[in-house]
Amino acid sequence: GMSVGLVPFSTIGYNMTTTSTFVQSTGEVEQTETYKGDGGIHEVFVGLGYMPIKGLSVGANVGYIWGTLDHSVTASFNSTTISSRQRKYTTDIRSYKVDLGVQYEKPINRNNTLILGATYGLGHNVNRNANYYDQRITTNQGTVGDTLVAKNAYEMPHTFAIGATWNHRNRLRVGFDYSLQLWDGCKSPQLNSNNEYIVGTDAYKNRHQFALGSEYVRNPNSAKFMHRVRYRLGFSYATPYVKVNGIDGPRSYTASMGVGIPISNFWSKNSVLNISAQYERVEPKLSTMITENYYRLCIGITFHDGWFAKWKVQ
């Protein structure tokens, strides 16, 4: 079997503003700080799977990831005597990604099957630089400042995952997954107290993720359209992997529900239009940090066809 995919690997998107006041010799000054983040990383991959013996499958996904990560902090003032300051953190990511997997399918009886699986994601250095720009915007000199570079500033973590799925008559599936991402000790760019942009290894911690999902289809082989619609429900929980000023970052709780709508044509009856609604709550450890709530609508198409088939004439 073979698969080809294009999926989002990570995404950034925020725009926040805070306002404060302080007093100097000329009077009260209002300061406005704007925090912006934009960009993301995409992944394209090719997967190959092979069954050397009945019930045992092995496979690999080989992919390429690319994208830009942009963060900025801008401080402006309502006084012309104080220069605005803008700090930018930018990175251009280009690297490879390799995932290996093994799966074993064991029939329990005529109607039930147990499927066990394990995967490993290769951790490696990402040989890309991170740039830091510290700029001051003045009325007479324009923009002046420094540019600092942290070389070879990123690293992909080793990832391990195991899972089990119970399959009842190909109509009801219930699965559980556990994954471990070894972020502890991975490299990342950091601005230290001496205003040096360096590569550090203390910004992350290992991440644990637990996921439970189910799918029900009334009759996958039925001629009736509604009998082949797949109904899905899932939940997941993930521990923090990033540290904020030495404190553990937010935990993530996710719930989703959706349907898989069959697409039938002359060539295939196995392709599926996937539609799901998802809610995610990102909850920090401290009440002074920001709690985030996400509502997502996800749409995807799975093309599942038989290739390289030959006609037989008898």
Question: How would you concisely characterize the structure shown here?
Answer:
Helices cover 0% and strands 70% of the residues. It contains no helices and 20 strands.
Fold and architecture overview:
With 314 residues, the protein is mainly β. It contains no helices and 20 strands. The strands form 4 sheets. Strands 1, 2, 3, 4, 5, 7, 8, 10, 11, 14, 15, 18, 19 and 20 form a 14-stranded antiparallel beta sheet that branches. A two-stranded antiparallel sheet has the order 6-9. It has a two-stranded antiparallel ribbon with strand order 12-13. A hairpin with a 5-residue loop joins strand 12 (188-191) and strand 13. The radius of gyration is 25 Å and the shape is elongated.
Average pLDDT, all residues: 91
**What is the percent of helical residues?**
under 10%
Tell me the span between the first and last alpha carbons.
27 Å
Overall geometric form: elongated
> How many separate helices?
0
What would you report as the Rg, rounded to the nearest angstrom? 25 Å
User: Percent of residues in beta strands?
Assistant: over 45%
Strand elements, count: 20
What structural class results from the helix and strand content? mainly beta
Task: Describe the sheet with the most strands.
Answer: 14 strands, antiparallel
